[in-house]
Amino acid sequence: MSDLSIQNLHVSYGSVNAVRGVSFEVHEGEIVTLIGANGAGKTTMLRAISGLEKAKEGSILYGGADLTKLPAHKIVEQGIVHIPEGRRIFSNLTVYDNLIMGAHLRKDTGEVKADLEDCFDIFPRLKERSGQLGGTLSGGEQQMLAIARGIMTHGKTMLLDEPSMGLAPLVVEEIFEVIKRINRRGTTILLVEQNANIALKNADRAYVLETGTIVKDGSAKDLLHDPSIRAAYLGC
Ligand code: ATP
């Protein structure tokens, strides 16, 4: 079953055509990655899916609905969680309050509590620091908090924008272990990354985006060993 189906999507900023006729699918339960260089249109793709940018043309089908016709808050209600680039946590709120903010649209109080316990189980470091202000966490801890806040939204599909950005290699490994764990718990993942190496090592399938167009796709394993991908994106 196809969870998310993007067909012939075009997104522009004035005269800049950032996404030019992109089509791809994310199936339920998968980890799919979109890789590409700076400015390829990866962030724009995610912003279009979550309703933060308007599509000029094309459709984004999710569970029978065309997301291009819905405002951003309705898209969240459909089960799409967007973890933006640069984390965007609330610096002046505690870790605990940041997490509770993730659940502000939910009415299932009992399940919110269970999800909070899950978050603390997945991220013991956030539990230790639950009273600490978000802005005082390290970069890696802030990324963990952003992902944990996404878990609190209780979505079915998580869009992750460059979770590795600015983090040390060991922290990146830790973040990707968590992403796989969240996936195993039943969340579908669409992951945008400039770090093609880590993305391809952890995803099921991948699409390569160049100047707003998909130029290659396949299993992540195949692309990891593809000589042209290795030369262009893996520096070897
Ligand atoms: P990066 O990895 O550097 O974040 P990206 O692949 O995510 O790159 P986008 O941020 O989607 O790329 O940008 C795609 C293109 O759209 C770029 O040429 C960028 O300059 C342009 N762009 C992005 N946001 C805006 C904006 N708000 N106004 C005008 N142009 C924009």
Automatic annotation (TrEMBL):
<dbReference type="InterPro" id="IPR017871">
    <property type="entry name" value="ABC_transporter-like_CS"/>
</dbReference>
<keyword id="KW-0029">Amino-acid transport</keyword>
<dbReference type="GO" id="GO:0016887">
    <property type="term" value="F:ATP hydrolysis activity"/>
</dbReference>
<dbReference type="InterPro" id="IPR003439">
    <property type="entry name" value="ABC_transporter-like_ATP-bd"/>
</dbReference>
<protein>
    <submittedName>
        <fullName>ABC transporter ATP-binding protein</fullName>
    </submittedName>
</protein>
<dbReference type="InterPro" id="IPR027417">
    <property type="entry name" value="P-loop_NTPase"/>
</dbReference>
<dbReference type="InterPro" id="IPR030660">
    <property type="entry name" value="ABC_branched_ATPase_LivF/BraG"/>
</dbReference>
<dbReference type="Pfam" id="PF00005">
    <property type="entry name" value="ABC_tran"/>
</dbReference>
<dbReference type="GO" id="GO:0005524">
    <property type="term" value="F:ATP binding"/>
</dbReference>
<dbReference type="InterPro" id="IPR052156">
    <property type="entry name" value="BCAA_Transport_ATP-bd_LivF"/>
</dbReference>
<dbReference type="InterPro" id="IPR003593">
    <property type="entry name" value="AAA+_ATPase"/>
</dbReference>
<keyword id="KW-0547">Nucleotide-binding</keyword>
<dbReference type="GO" id="GO:0015807">
    <property type="term" value="P:L-amino acid transport"/>
</dbReference>
<feature type="domain" description="ABC transporter">
    <location>
        <begin position="4"/>
        <end position="236"/>
    </location>
</feature>
<keyword id="KW-0067">ATP-binding</keyword>
<dbReference type="GO" id="GO:0015658">
    <property type="term" value="F:branched-chain amino acid transmembrane transporter activity"/>
</dbReference>
<comment type="similarity">
    <text>Belongs to the ABC transporter superfamily.</text>
</comment>
<keyword id="KW-0813">Transport</keyword>
